[in-house]
Every structure is written in C-alpha cells, then in structure tokens.
Amino acid sequence: MTNDVVIEAHGLDLTFQTGDGPVHALKGVDLSVEAGEFVSFIGPSGCGKTTFLRVVAALEHPTGGTITVNGMTPDEARRKRAYGYVFQAAGLYPWRTIGGNVRLPLEIMGYSKAEQAERVARVLELVDLAGFEKKFPWQLSGGMQQRASIARALAFDADILLMDEPFGALDEIVRDRLNEELLGLWGRTGKTIGFVTHSIPEAVYLSTKIVVMSPRPGRITDVIDSPLPKERPLDIRDSPEFIEIAHRVREGLRAGHGDEV
C-alpha cells in the first residue's frame, strides 16, 4: 500500500433544494483515502453514505467545501475514467449476454474487438464467472449477477472501485461468500475500494478503514483504522479483535444518533 491520497475531502457540504425546503445531506465532511485502502461507509439510512460516493463519482455536486479524486475534480476524474461504479442492483441489460454486458463500457470507450475480448475474459476469470460469457442475466443467480456487475466495473481497469451496497439484497450465505471473494479480488488487484453498507459485520470484515456516519446532516462521527490482517478467513469474525472493532462501530453509530436534533 502506498501513501498516495486518491480521494480527499475538506469541509464537504451538500444541500439538496426540495419543495419541502433544503435537505442537508452532507455537512463538514473531512476524509482522506489512500491508494490501496478498502474503506467502508456505514450509518443509518439517509446519512449521506451513498451521497458521498456519488459526489466522488461526479453524480452529485457539493454545495460547499472541496473534494479531489486523483488530484483532480470529480468531473475531471470521471472523464479520465478513474473509477468503476457498482450499484445496489446489478443493472445488467437483459437482452445482452453476460459478456455483452461486461463489454459495454469497452465498446463505448472505443477499445478494439481483440482488446475487448481479452479484457472481458480476464475480468470474468477474476470474479469466477469464466464460462458464463454467453449466458443471459436471467440465467444467473442474484449473486452471480452482482459478480458480473463487478466485472463490468473492473473491465476498463480503473484504480478506484466504488460500490454502493452491492450485496444488500442477497441472503447471508451468498453475501458471506461474495465478501470472501471481494477480499480476494481486492488483494489480487490492489484497487482502492469505497464500499457503502448497512451491515456492521460486513464493514468490519472487509475494511482497512471504517467511516461511521451520523443521521442527517451526514457527518463523520468516527474513522476506524482496522488492525486486522489483510488475509481474513470468515471465522476471524469470532476473534476478540473483530468483536472490539464491531463494538466501536456500534458505539459510533449510537453517538451519531445521540447528536440528532
């Protein structure tokens, strides 16, 4: 892991103007994310977790403060394709095969047919979907569809992977398996990952850094650097270290609720 800061926010505010008055989605957010970190964002619904990810991706624009992605504005970073984005739903086109879905961003970016084929094969292998290229989304389970969605986000090899509750709709057994696979993928690729979740065990299991957020206006109540080793079997969740971090996350969430007005 290098010490290059890839995402840096200072005093970040975002207020949405609505018919019912302003909604303060983010307030005074300060955060640095270094290259190669796995950073989870956890907090109650409406606390600004997804909004922060969308600001990084230039899908929302802050109303105050500053944010840079790879030293650029989020708009510049988007144009330079600095990140891949995985949404809550897999969002695969049902009329395209799995290979066709993964290939789509490469087609849009103008990669040659040979380069498209090589990249599609490589990322499907990475997410354990080799051999499924000609299947259609409806022929795959929910977990496999999400893996295809991750492959699509990895296809153009951006350094940053932004993931908005990608496993939230899956059952616990599938979710555990995908958590293990995602950690393996992160270890092999060295990507910087920003990951939104509602699950304390998921946040603690996956992350090198956990960002705990409060209810609106979304503020950071705690940033926890995980002491857990990079190699993490699932049963690490029974260890005293894991339980201690989970307790601190829970305390941070409770403190955030205590500040609610």
Helices and strands in order:
Elements: E1 5-18, E2 21-34, E3 38-42, H1 49-56, E4 64-69, H2 74-79, E5 83-86, H3 98-108, H4 113-126, H5 142-154, E6 160-164, H6 172-189, E7 192-197, H7 200-206, E8 209-213, E9 220-225, H8 240-258
Parallel strand pairs: 3-7, 3-8, 5-6, 6-7
Antiparallel strand pairs: 1-2, 1-4, 8-9
Helix pairs in contact: 3-4, 3-5, 4-5, 7-8
Mean pLDDT: 90
Largest beta sheet, briefly?
6 strands, mixed
CATH class type of the largest domain: Alpha Beta
Say how many strands there are: 9
- What is the name of the CATH superfamily of the largest domain? P-loop containing nucleotide triphosphate hydrolases
Number of helices: 8
Beta-strand residue fraction? 15-25%
Helical content stands at 25-40%
Return the CATH topology of the largest domain.
Rossmann fold
Shape descriptor reads globular
Radius of gyration: 18 Å
| SSE run | EEEHEHEHHHEHEHEEH
SS-based structural class?
A: alpha/beta
Just name the CATH architecture of the largest domain.
Answer: 3-Layer(aba) Sandwich
Strand order of the largest sheet: 5-6-7-3-8-9
Please indicate the count of domains. 2
From the N-terminal CA to the C-terminal CA, the straight-line distance is 40 Å
